[in-house]
Write a structure and sequence with these properties.
The protein has 394 residues and is α+β, with helices and mostly antiparallel strands. It has helices spanning 20-47, 53-59, 79-92, 94-114, 117-128, 147-150, 242-277, 289-317, 323-348, 359-371, 376-388, and strands at 134-137, 154-158, 161-171, 179-186, 192-198, 204-208, 221-231, 279-280, 283-284. The longest helix has 36 residues, at 242-277. It starts with 19 loop residues before the first helix and ends in a 6-residue tail after the last helix. This is Glutaryl-CoA dehydrogenase.
């Protein structure tokens, strides 16, 4: 008699590194996301709309405060739990993962890492409870990978007020965020500084980017800053240069590696279920050698990705992780993710391009995950400099 099938994508049992209580909590979160959140995001993708009723539902899980327990409800979870939580969010929909990552990782992370005690106490409790939603404005129309040296958005000080001018692009949550962390170059000393701009500030305009083929639910914005006046009290007091910005990106880059794993995991889950149920030539296609080959290659990629992100989480928890390790994880996992979603779509045949089969959405969304938070090429050069001692940046 054949052995029962083992469908889990966590083939080597990395989740066993979590405590029983943590695994139970993740199971509760997964069930809630599947029943309450997933249907809203499934319906929103084709319309390129954000399902705002989902925010109140997500807030009930109190997830945004995990990384900042002193400003949430006091609950703290380790880096590894946070990684698996990230996996669960993105497994439902990468757009949900981006919404959460921008709000919790980039916006809250910037304020927590770069703000004064007063600023953290003023903004983070409302953000942890999702009473206020954050965004992070760094990328510019003419500056993506080279934004560190080519930032054109300026900040000019006039007494106790800063005047911001410039433009930002691809700003997730940008059309509806209550608080936007804007990075601008000080005209006096040339250093990059961070500013919290509140919704409704005169001169601040956010316009939704239309016509996307990936992450359609994410409300990316083109932002224009025209003589936007921000009080000195809203400048992040512990940010002195782009190094502080880079520190935020290094922390969140590891989160994108978990996101890439989640996309690959969901693609595998969908492909395996389809292979077991879909019949051709009188039997399930999962019984054919070439289909099994695709599934095994996907599982191999996923297992390698698990090993890298889990170890990165452990190093982070011990305070021993580095920006270069996060860069390698982002470059490697997004490349393997891209292979997995392509193999999964291939396995679905013609049905793989129909949204009703879900894999089409993950196939498209993977392209955005592959590109943002540092392209594969840029992250490769970061790691390459570390292992050779030579900078190959142009």
């Amino acid at each position: 008699m054949p052995k029962p099938a083992n469908p889990t994508p966590d083939f080597f049992g990395y989740a066993d590194l979590l405590s029983n209580a943590e695994r139970a909590e993740l199971a509760t979160v997964r069930d809630y996301l599947e029943s309450e959140i997933k249907p809203l995001f499934d319906a929103a993708w084709e319309r390129a709309e954000f399902p705002f009723p989902a925010v109140e539902k997500i807030a009930k899980l109190r997830l945004a405060g995990y990384a900042y327990p002193e400003f949430g409800d006091g609950r703290h979870r380790g880096e590894l739990f946070s990684g698996f939580l990230n996996l669960e969010l993105n497994r439902i929909d990468p757009s949900l993962g981006v919404f959460s990552g921008v709000h919790t990782g980039l916006a809250m992370g910037s304020i927590h890492g770069g703000g004064s005690r007063e600023q953290r106490e003023r903004w983070l409790p409302d953000m942890a409870a999702m009473r206020k939603i954050g965004a992070f404005a760094l990328t510019e129309p003419e500056g993506g990978s080279d934004v560190a040296g080519g930032m054109r958005t300026t900040a000019r000080r006039e007494g106790d007020t800063w005047v911001l001018n410039g433009a930002k692009r691809w700003i997730g949550n940008g059309t509806f965020a209550d608080l936007v962390v804007v990075w601008a170059r000080d005209t006096a000393d040339g250093n990059v500084k961070g500013f919290v701009v509140e919704k409704g500030t005169p001169g601040f305009t956010a316009t939704k980017i239309e016509g996307k083929i990936a992450l359609r639910t994410v409300q990316n914005a083109d932002i224009t800053l025209d003589e936007v006046r921000v009080p000195e009290a809203d400048r992040l007091q512990r940010v002195g240069s782009f190094r502080d910005t880079a520190a935020v990106l290094a922390r969140t880059r590891g989160g994108v590696a978990w996101q890439a794993l989640a996309v690959a995991v969901r693609a595998y889950e969908l492909a395996r279920a389809y292979a077991v149920d879909r019949e051709q030539f009188g039997r399930p296609i999962g019984s054919f050698q070439l289909v099994q080959d695709l599934l095994v290659k996907m599982l191999g990629n996923i297992t390698a990705m698990f090993g890298m992100v889990v170890r990165l989480g452990q190093l982070s928890a011990a305070g021993r992780d580095s920006a270069e390790q996060a860069a390698l994880a982002k470059a490697f996992t997004t490349s393997r993710m891209r292979e997995c979603v392509a193999w999964a779509r291939e396995l679905f045949g013609g049905n793989g391009i129909v949204l009703g089969y879900e894999i089409a959405r993950f196939f498209a969304d993977a392209e955005a995950v592959y590109s943002f938070e540092g392209t594969r090429e840029m992250n490769t050069l970061i790691v390459g400099k570390t292992i050779t001692g030579y900078s190959a940046f142009a």
